Amino acid sequence: FFFICIYLHIGRGLYYGSYVYKETWNIGVVLLLLVMMTAFVGYVLPWGQMSFWGATVITNLLSAVPYVGNTLVQWIWGGFSVDNATLTRFFTFHFLFPFVIAAATLLHLLFLHETGSNNPMGLNPNADKIPFHP
């Protein structure tokens, strides 16, 4: 349900041209990636066969990054293969990512407050703004 709301929000942004405000849009894209990473590491936590092989396949995709790919994969794994160290790291990531998401959401809202939101009427929202501080 959460991802459906996110995709609807992205669709609304595309329809109304919110991508014009690059900072707000880029922070939103970073938020989408953070939420997807949180969902992925949460998927791995039950540590069944599907989780194990999902972690193996998806983390191995990072090995395609030039120069640092293999080092990055081994750092995420905590060794040379998906193991207990990987599970510990994914537990840690799954705990920490929501705090990063909350901070990025606040930053997204701050930029949205500065630029204003696009709306169906195409009205200028500057007249209705109230400052955050005096």
Strand segment tally: 0
Total count of helical runs of at least 4 residues: 5
Over all CA atoms, what is the radius of gyration? 19 Å
- CATH superfamily, by name, is Cytochrome Bc1 Complex, Chain C
CATH topology: Cytochrome Bc1 Complex, Chain C
> Mean pLDDT, nearest integer?
92
Would you identify the regions where 5 or more consecutive residues have pLDDT less than 50?
none
Reported for the largest beta sheet, the result is: none
Outline the structure in words:
It is elongated and about 60 Å long. Helix content is 68%, strand content 0%. The protein has five helices and no strands. With 134 residues, it is mostly helical. The mean pLDDT is 92. The chain has a single domain, classed as Up-down Bundle (Cytochrome Bc1 Complex, Chain C). It has helices at 2-16, 22-44, 49-60, 69-77, 84-115. It comes from Apogon planifrons.
Please render the helix and strand layout as text:
Blueprint: H1 2-16, H2 22-44, H3 49-60, H4 69-77, H5 84-115
Helix pairs in contact: 2-3, 2-5
